[in-house]
Design brief:
alpha/beta, two-stranded antiparallel sheet, single chain, seven-stranded mixed sheet, globular
Length: 212
């Protein structure tokens, strides 16, 4: 069983998690021998949060409940409230997860939180444009490893800009190994381009009777 921990906080950017959660929860394009996944929302308290889109989410568990192991993945979405000191606990947990060989996936404002903690100083990464992290994160010393790309995967660390949700999701799915390589590539190209040929190519990669 692989556990996907989704950190939730007020003003969470709903769209940044949309592709990833929809595919990981529905399993609609998973290969037949894909591992089982458990998806859990986590926060610093059990108090409901309100996303940027006004959706209320009550966390399933607390930061202390997150298990640091190779079968854990942590998703850190963007939000306007990352500077709240309550979130220091999940950033410390992210450091623990990386040390344990788990996967940590941060997008948009969450990358700034990791940068503040020094977690981007020694790994290739991206964020909301060159200079952004240096501007908002005093502890950031990793500009030499910054990559001006929508999403960057470096072993257990996957980062993305605010507009990089789709390639970020591709990297996340790839890290979990739940889709065949050709399925993932066709899925990505279809949502990237909107061209129907990629949809039909996607369907061709699935066993008969599968798909949406």
């Amino acid at each position: 069983m692989h556990t996907i921990y989704v950190y939730v906080l007020d003003t969470l950017a709903d769209w940044e998690l949309g592709y990833a959660l929809a595919e990981l929860n529905s399993r609609r394009f998973f290969k037949r021998d894909a591992p089982q996944l458990a998806i859990k929302t986590v926060s610093y308290s059990k108090k409901p949060i309100s996303t940027m889109g006004g959706v209320e989410i009550t966390p399933d568990c607390l930061v202390d409940d997150v298990v640091a192991s190779k079968t854990s993945t942590l998703l850190l979405p963007g939000a306007n409230t990352w500077n709240n000191p309550h979130h220091a606990a999940i950033v410390e947990k992210a450091s623990e997860l990386l040390s344990a060989g788990a996967t940590v996936c941060a997008i948009c404002g969450a990358t700034a939180a990791l940068a503040d903690f020094g977690l981007l100083n020694a790994r290739p990464h991206t964020s909301n444009g060159p200079g952004f992290l240096a501007m908002v994160s005093p502890g950031y010393k990793g500009s030499a490893l910054y990559r001006d790309e929508p999403s960057v995967s470096d072993g257990g660390l996957i980062t993305a800009s605010s507009t990089g949700a789709l390639p970020w999701t591709k990297h996340i799915i790839e890290s979990l190994g739940v889709l065949q390589a050709d399925t993932l590539e066709s899925w990505y190209e279809y949502f990237r381009t909107g061209e129907s040929e990629h949809f039909f190519a996607l369907m061709q990669t699935l066993p008969s009777g599968d798909g949406c």
